[in-house]
């Protein structure tokens, strides 16, 4: 049976026809400890504005029975149950069973390898609630949901609305949750299992944290930080949106085999990969904070106010991504959050936005399958940067006033982009029509440079420039360092803009200083080499980050070599003072050596990164990050011996070192076995598989490919870790057969839902043992694939094509 994707036209017709009063969903999880089945009875009460009309309800589970107003209905076809001859007021009852809880969409049953305990989680974005129970699975048919869940007696159940009434049934317990507020189907959730639970009262909110029992110690370690961040975030958003979170209970549930995090109202679900088994690095702690604040921002942008259709997905995701950096900088100890954004996510967005997968932030979405393809670098980091520019453009106080008006006007309803633009235009006193068209409806990245003619300075856009406000910073040399002597804000309305107020004797002029907009920059030819040399000597993480971003963009467009980019970034690392960017820059430098450098200079660049890591390790605050970097770039026996001595009993570092030793051809079998016995991590088997993935051995490659790509045994949160160890430079002869196997797998890459589809498509795409004709074959093979696969493959193939061109260069 095929499963049809809901089209916009169908959704609009159904929304004009129906108003959903409520969902009463009865869920039976008692079969899950020993079997795969989730049994549901969904009762939907709704009105029809045209009695006698017909429509359909979505249900992609196995329908065991369905009645409309007491009359039996025909079987489901293509994931839909026809609803004929609707009355003015209707009650629909559907019994369904979902038995594909291992690899299917919507609901997942995970077994903890540490103790055999079973955990179940649900995740429904964009339209996967229909795989679990019958519903009108579109965002603008919001309704209260009442969940009643029967689960094994030892299990705890979590859902959106918090305090359940629990009834003891002997071997089971029934959890009756109060009605949720009006929610879209994709914002609802039920999670269950024998969770470890921690609760705390913070500023009038009852906060809960949950994890599987085998990770209780890690959850306890991180609980104080998470409760602090949750309290800070709730207070910040309540103030800037002029609307406190309206529910007392706010839970966060960490579950196995989950990808990322999901903003279910009042009950956020996380991958428990965020519970770091080793003590988190500064960058990992900051990432946890930003994800926590991102999902929390969705309580307002996505849950309380929801986009009407998926063309406005950016109203959810871009805003949450912007807000998490805004909140982190203003309300938490992560005051360099925007610098971290520039050093990592924004670089990926610049690359994506200049390739064949670029698209406008706001674009027409024909159906939900297409919507799944835009959870990407344009919607998230570019969107966040564009909203930061919008706040700069209208002014922060007016921006806040516009947001407060927007939430007050549209709470618990659905909106379009124009509703947001109207609220911000009214509050900001600016007509944003031109801004909207240029920034949200036009793809691509502006590029700026400066022209100097005597004392006059002109900001020049490479093409027509979007309306925006940005800054130009002037820097003067003081010894080896540079200090900022002026900062001039410039409003851009045309391709050439005079910049006044800069000191005539500035040694360096930095375009987009303070990183207020989304635009790449170029030095003029006379100062190109100066930029590469001075990047490390600029005075702030943002100013250094802007120089790195320029050098990176020049590498990706063939205007700089891997050697030049690598040397620049390692020089910045030696001088960097911000913990937010050390780890992203180490990752970037290592990636340039591995993926962008010609064979003739790869070893030299890798040695330079390894030497930088050894130097950074002398600083106690940088030691952990530096040793991890060395574990990726160790080049000889001396590096490995020094790393092992530094690692001591640190199991995480020993695993990392073992991966590198395996790649270099070491005999790692016995040490792998010993580490596996010592490691308390319930998912340590993945670390052992990662070691085997790196081995230059045909049998090991075959075994790992089977488990990773065919059997899909690796948790979605670990796909990248294992795949990166599998695809190593210098192993082309071993890897060549798997390039063909990737092509053969493309028709199946969509299976399991949006997150696995994106992960497998991107991470299994071969960065080595391929050439340009192969990339063209991959693109052709994806033409008939699901939109999310096609889009992800197009984006990744463009990046690898750029890498191939860089590797083919002189490398000087």
UniProtKB/TrEMBL annotation:
InterPro entries recorded: Aminopeptidase_N-like_N, Aminopeptidase_N-like_N_sf, ERAP1-like_C_dom, Pept_M1_aminopeptidase, Peptidase_M1, Peptidase_M1_aminopeptidases, Peptidase_M1_dom, Peptidase_M4/M1_CTD_sf
Reactions catalysed according to its record: Release of an N-terminal amino acid, Xaa-|-Yaa- from a peptide, amide or arylamide. Xaa is preferably Ala, but may be most amino acids including Pro (slow action). When a terminal hydrophobic residue is followed by a prolyl residue, the two may be released as an intact Xaa-Pro dipeptide
Enzyme class: hydrolase
Peptidase M1 membrane alanine aminopeptidase domain segment(s): 230-434
Ranges for domain ERAP1-like C-terminal: 509-801
Domain Aminopeptidase N-like N-terminal: 117-186
CDD domains attached to this UniProt entry: M1_APN
Superkingdom, taxonomy of origin: Bacteria
EC numbers, comma separated: 3.4.11.2
Molecular function terms from GO: alanyl aminopeptidase activity
Gene3D superfamilies found in the cross-reference section: Neutral Protease Domain 2, tricorn interacting facor f3 domain
Cofactor: Zn(2+)
A Pfam family hit: ERAP1_C
Keywords: Aminopeptidase, Hydrolase, Metal-binding, Metalloprotease, Protease, Zinc
NCBIfam families: pepN_strep_liv
Family of this protein: Belongs to the peptidase M1 family.
PANTHER family per record: PROTEASE M1 ZINC METALLOPROTEASE, PUROMYCIN-SENSITIVE AMINOPEPTIDASE-RELATED
Protein name per Swiss-Prot or TrEMBL: Aminopeptidase N
